[in-house]
Amino acid sequence: MQLENQTIWITGASSGVGEGMATVFHREGANVILSGRRADELERVAAGCKQGTGSVTVVPFDITDAVGREAAAARVLNDFDRLDVLVNNAGIGQRSLAKDTTLEVDRRIMEVDFFGPIALTKLVMPRMVEQQSGHMVVTSSVAGKHAVPMHTSYCAAKHALHGWYDTLRVEHFKDNIAVTLLVIAGVRSNVFKHALTGDGSEAGGNEWGEDGVGMTAEACAEQVIEAMLRRAEEVVISIPEARQALDIRQTDPQGFTERMVKFMEWQLK
Q: What mean pLDDT is predicted for residues 64-87?
């Protein structure tokens, strides 16, 4: 078992990538702590973690609620002697043009996708410094590496995660705390369904993989484990189409812009 005796706290664990990581990490021997807003869905995920020898603990809370966040961290740090890995996976998507998006929605996305994760990180960092080991795993996106139309604030939040956690890695290098940023695209999840539109309503619609194109969350989790074991600073976990866009951005910026314009036109249909 690749993660035997590791204690791993996963936020956004009630579906998608988080659920996949919960299932696979537990199968590989980890003690998993599952968090998210929906307690019933977390219990469903916990019930599905049957193949491993480690424990499964459900700690529901809203990543943007300071009181709930602090209470959740206090519980985890009290109940577990060690915290080996924090997976900051909680997040929310966006499907709206910048000109059509209220500032309130911009702020909501930044709170969920940036401020919430770093606030939780600050709460557990003292324990990792004390034990002189730890690993921060952060779910980013190709939107954290380049422009994606109709995702302005989402892109901003994901770009911010890279800047913040890349710097954290340097500051705590001598404390033996690793940071791995997951550049993910095309994994089957509910990200499209629950993404915010310009007025704050949910976008609904199809998700990656409904037609068989997307990667399963479990396959994604397998790649996350490999990245964790080698303490990778950043890893791309993506379907080929999204990986191509990353490459084109580096080699042909104008061609990349034209590609994104076509992608925007497709989304607007």
A: 98
Find the CATH number of the domain harbouring 92.
Answer: 3.40.50.720
Which element (helix H / strand E) includes 251? helix 240-251
Reduced to 3 states (helix: H, G, I; strand: E, B; else coil), residue 40 is: helix
The pLDDT value recorded for residue 210 is 47
Distance of CA 164 to the CA centre of its chain: 15
Residue 257 lies in a domain: no
Please give the positions annotated as active site.
154
- Write out the DSSP string of 47-94: HT--SSSS-EEE----TT-HHHHHHHHHHHHHH-S---EEEE-----B
pLDDT digits (tens, 9 = 90+) for 88-131: 999 999 999 999 999 999 999 999 999 999 999 999 999 999 99
Count of structural domains, the chain = 1
Q: Distance between CA atoms of 256 and 262, rounded to whole angstroms?
A: 10
Residue pointed to by tokens 């943007």: 64
Cα-Cα end-to-end distance for the chain: 47
Q: CA torsion angle for 231, 26, 113, 139 (degrees, to 10)?
A: 30
AA identity, residue 202:
E
Burial 166-182, CB ≥16 within 10 A → b, else e: eebbeebeeeebbbbbb
Q: Are strands 85-88 and 31-34 parallel, antiparallel or unpaired?
A: unpaired
Domain encompassing residue 71? 7-240
Residue 99 lies in a domain: yes
- Beta pairing partners, 183: 236
